[in-house]
Design brief:
about 625 residues, alpha/beta, Immunoglobulin-like, eight-stranded parallel beta barrel, 30 strands, elongated
Length: about 625
């Protein structure tokens, strides 16, 4: 019995093929160039057949109407790249030993870590990445987010040009290398989710159009024609993507998915494609708890609503508002899509309390309203970040945020980020202040490479500072291998940047071990804006109270201290227990808060105060 409705599967002593090809009159399987076997036509454009003479690891293509041969759209492996033959893969021969793994069980306590396999290590393989798993476990992250791995043309790519959505790219190793990576991660208590691209196919190596004209619509999106999720003959198209979602959970034991650019996916049918994907992921997870998140530029909270509420039942959505405010605050730049953010105290307080900043208000940069209501939606449904692959690469010369800001201010912002109630996401190397830039890169053939290079420069032109030829000339073009090479992490920096690494480790442990932050979903957060640079957050929880003071400006004197959120509980006083200006993190020290007299909040700092019993003489 088949596991999936499409692709090549080993069933007992035979290999069974099935493909949707309504454009074709006949489909034959060509094995290693040594012979052809015809598939039988089914209803609704499907062709299928089983053959005993075909074996595991055999290479094959489909011959269309007696003419040219093309790869399988549901190929599990493309050892020679997307233009080469597909390979018969036996997913059952890998010896999984992660049977005790229960998945992502405490979803409100997730700490995400996004990484790109090709640049995460010098080798750029799953085997090399697996060697870093104990380090990631020691850092304190709980869930790894692997950037897209579907087969792509060339030697290097971000992954968003994938064309064989069931085939892990040959550039990072074998399918079993990927399984081994996930198996080891589970043994160490780390979950792994996969970034998948269901909004477009890459521009080179996609042969779906040889089999059907119904995968795409005539509607133009950000990357050309959009995928047909609700038009004529959309059922097999939906099946293709829904099965792909379940495939990664079933055959590779991924713990969930991150859905890329959901704003570019259009579906007017019911149930919505996102809801069906989430149900498939949960189904294939079996007894394991899974995690599905989404990038949605429109910031629609319906993604995390339950099915009863008319929602899609995702676990979380990315929150770009927090990043944009933080970027403006730390860099002083308000260009392009940063122009509608001020980086002021009110934005950070509102973010902590209400999640999205734009929840339906007018958004001048886009000349339309942005976002939907998110007040009252639990904060663990929103993912905050200071860096991700897009926001590092898309802001000009691809510098990391720490290199664009003052160390003191960066530590203060990081403290706010990691102690906010939303789910934090790291980008690879962020924790040790990685110095290599993270560029946009993709290895296409010459003519297409030129088009991509041109498009990249046009995208960057929205930043006025990029109009300077001296700036543009310093940015490697996407097709250049140096763009890829320059983006690789330098792991020796982990030892050389010990202060900032320890800073992040301690903050993560504080978030995980302090009972108030460990149970943030039970905390009520209130706050006050003292100035555009200075604000406070107070956490009220069954496990205690905490006060976070944040100052992005100069030393600030609170006098008079008339804000009731500064008042301690009866017979208690506030005591600083943690500061971004601790000397062990490279800080310059901080001013203590005393129960008598005025308070001074140290400039460019964040400090966390606990309530302690008042001394008898106070």
């Amino acid at each position: 019995m088949r596991k999936m409705p499409i692709g090549a599967e080993i069933i007992q002593d035979a290999v069974h093929f099935r493909i949707w090809a309504p454009k074709c009159k006949s489909i034959e399987v060509l094995i290693d160039g040594r012979g052809r076997s015809s598939l039988k036509s089914e209803k609704n454009g499907y062709f299928s057949g089983a053959f005993e003479e075909i074996r595991e690891d055999d290479l094959y293509k489909f011959v269309v109407d007696g003419g040219d041969a093309f790869p399988d759209p549901a190929s599990r492996c493309q050892p020679q790249g997307p233009h080469g033959p597909s390979q018969i893969i036996n997913p059952n021969k890998f010896n999984w030993t992660d049977h005790e793994w229960k998945g992502i069980t405490e979803k409100d306590q997730v700490i995400l870590y996004e990484f790109h396999v090709g640049t995460f290590t010098e080798e750029g393989t799953w085997q090399a990445a697996a060697e870093k798993l104990p380090y990631l476990r020691g850092l304190g992250v709980t869930l790894l987010e692997m950037m897209p791995i579907a087969e792509f043309p060339g030697k290097f790519n971000w992954g968003y040009d994938g064309v064989d959505l069931f085939a892990p790219t040959r550039n990072y190793g074998t399918p079993d290398d990927l399984r081994s990576f996930i198996n080891e991660a589970h043994h160490l208590g780390l979950g792994v989710i996969l970034d998948v691209v269901y909004n477009h196919f890459g521009p080179s190596g996609n042969y779906l159009y040889q089999y059907s004209d119904f995968y795409l619509t005539e509607e133009e999106g950000d990357w050309g024609k959009t995928i047909n999720f609700d038009g004529e003959h959309c059922k097999p198209v939906r099946e293709f993507f829904i099965e792909n979602a379940g495939y990664w959970i079933d055959e590779y034991h991924f713990d969930g998915l991150r859905l890329d650019a959901c704003h570019a996916i259009h579906d007017r049918s019911s149930p919505h494609i996102f809801l069906e994907i989430c149900k498939k992921v949960k189904e294939k997870g079996g007894g394991r708890s899974t995690y599905v998140s989404a990038e949605n530029e429109k910031q629609e909270s319906i993604f995390v609503f339950s099915e009863d509420q008319g929602g899609y039942q995702l676990d979380a959505v990315w929150n770009e508002d927090f990043h944009h405010s933080a970027y403006v605050r730390l860099t002083g730049r308000k260009e392009a899509y940063f122009s509608d953010y001020c980086g002021r105290s009110q934005e950070f307080l509102s973010s902590a309390k209400f999640n999205f900043l734009y929840q339906g208000q007018w958004y001048p940069w886009q000349q339309q309203c942005r976002g939907t209501p998110a007040i009252g939606v639990p904060a663990y449904h929103f993912i905050n970040f200071l860096e991700n692959h897009d926001q590092v690469a898309n802001t000009g010369n691809a510098q990391r945020l720490h290199s664009l800001s003052q160390p003191k201010a960066y530590r203060a912002m990081t403290t706010l980020w990691l102690l906010s109630p939303q789910i934090p996401l790291f980008f690879q190397g962020q924790e040790f202040a990685s110095s290599p830039h993270f560029h946009y890169f993709c290895d296409h053939e010459q003519e297409l490479a030129g088009c991509v290079d041109k498009g990249r420069l046009e995208f960057l032109s929205q930043f006025v500072s990029m109009h300077d030829p001296n700036v543009i000339d310093r940015i490697p073009l996407p097709h250049e291998e140096r763009a890829f090479r320059l983006s690789k992490l330098k792991w020796q920096e982990k030892e050389n940047h010990g202060e900032i690494l320890q800073f992040h480790k301690d903050l993560i442990q504080l978030r995980k071990r302090d009972p108030v932050f460990h149970h943030l979903k039970e905390a009520k957060i209130e706050g006050s804006v003292l100035t555009d640079d200075v604000f406070l957050l107070r956490y009220f929880s069954p496990y205690g109270e905490r006060l976070l003071l944040v100052n992005f400006g100069v030393d600030y004197l609170i006098e008079p201290a008339s804000d009731p959120l500064l008042a301690p509980s009866l017979d208690r006083v506030w005591t600083i227990r943690w500061s971004s200006e601790f000397p062990e993190y490279g800080g310059s020290g901080f001013r203590q808060v005393t129960p008598k007299g005025s308070w001074t909040i140290t400039g460019c700092s964040a400090c966390l105060l606990y309530l302690e019993k008042k001394a008898p003489n106070l």
